[in-house]
Amino acid sequence: MYDRFFEKLAEKVTLTEAEKDLVRSFLQPKKLRRKQYLLQEGDVSKNVAFVENGMLRSYAVDEKGVDRIIQFAPEGWFVSDLYSHITGEPSGLNIDALEDSEIVLMSRDARDELLQRVPAFLKFSFEQMQSAYVALQCRLYDLNNLSTEEKYTKLLRTYPDIVQRVPQHMIASYLGLTPETLSRVRKGMAGRKESE
Amino acid sequence: MYDRFFEKLAEKVTLTEAEKDLVRSFLQPKKLRRKQYLLQEGDVSKNVAFVENGMLRSYAVDEKGVDRIIQFAPEGWFVSDLYSHITGEPSGLNIDALEDSEIVLMSRDARDELLQRVPAFLKFSFEQMQSAYVALQCRLYDLNNLSTEEKYTKLLRTYPDIVQRVPQHMIASYLGLTPETLSRVRKGMAGRKESE
DNA sequence: CGTTTGCTTGAATTCTGTCAAAGCAGGTGG
DNA sequence: CCACCTGCTTTGACAGAATTCAAGCAAACG
């Protein structure tokens, strides 16, 4: 239990056994069935979740009722509506499970206390956030500047197993495309490959 | 000197005078003329910059030679190529001044040492990074899901003085549009306003 | 088996990029 | 002080790309 979570910590900081125990005491395991919500629009995000295995997604619903996926969170990733979590305001996002999943929850109080009491945890959180920021900035650049096809192939290179695990229309949503457009782009790519 | 920098810190943490002095000893002021580079593509990002006043921008140049602006950094903002700064690899970005500017530099060693020696500085850096992450995620969502016109009006609401301070073609670049498209969108907005 | 869910396809429409040209400052040097 | 550049914005015409709406099809599911 919590194996992957502590592996993740170990990538960036080393904790004593005592610190590990302390951290562990603030965590709460949870299982989620496919399609089960972790957070629903309008609620306040009480927890940050770490995915031990399975996969979640966070998304917003636009004025036309269409899902707009913001993030996929497979095993080893954190997911939450940070804005709501920090400010305590109602969330505009939904988070739910795309597969049956096992996750680790950390409440806001738990997080605050750990950040204060365990310096290594603060250091980890900072570096984790820094990495996430760099990755997000890269993604933003790509979104702005790559062609549709390039966005898709780059996604495939970054997350090779995503095609097997999430339906295509969700990938389209994540990339900011309609399902039809993505379908046609894939067709174009396949056609070009065969003719060579 | 460093006034705005310490104001920024004070928004999130409180430092003793001794800590302030320590932080100060690791900072380096610098003036930049308009069009002067802080970082050029291919160089390694040695510093993180905080803008005391003036405005910088970070951008990449795509394969066709077109500037793609990633971030505007007016007074009170941090700017750097974090990826290059952390990894030590050559940067793919350029950072230069859009106006004559006064900035505060913090080298990588300085930053590492402050993060280690001044807990409040680590806490600040974490929270700063967290805020930046939330803001970036919001921007990414907008880029993906808003219409061209909505992106532009949202930008105007978020940074009311940006239109006065940066040329329109740079705003277009920041929004991922061609200058022509932005010009036409603005025309459309103006036309609609008058007829009502 | 019928229903749902997801993917594909087509045709029409709207939007955006591209290329080329012209207008409109502000700034500089003569 | 004026003529000239230069950088920036606007316009137009056209081509290409993406969305929309509608329909069909296959696999998965209860």
Write out key terms for the chains shown:
homodimer; 196 residues; alpha+beta; Jelly Rolls; four-stranded antiparallel beta sheet; 8 strands; 52% helix; globular; DNA-binding
Number of strands of chain A: 8
What would you give as the CATH superfamily of one domain in chain A? Answer: Jelly Rolls
CATH class of one domain in chain A: Mainly Beta
Quaternary structure annotation: homodimer
The parts of chain A where pLDDT drops under 50 for at least 5 residues are: none
| H/E element sequence of chain A | HHEEEEEEHEEHHHHHH
Question: N- to C-terminal separation of chain A?
Answer: 50 Å
Largest chain-chain contact?
A-B, 29 and 29 residues
What CATH calls the topology of one domain in chain A is: Jelly Rolls
Give me the number of helical elements of chain A: 9
Major beta sheet of chain A, specifics? 4 strands, antiparallel
CATH architecture tag of one domain in chain A: Sandwich
β-strand amount of chain A: 15-25%
The outline of chain A comes out as: globular
**Strand line-up of the largest beta sheet of chain A:** 1-8-3-6
> Whole-number radius of gyration of chain A?
18 Å
| Helix content bin of chain A | 40-55%
| Structural class designation of chain A | alpha+beta
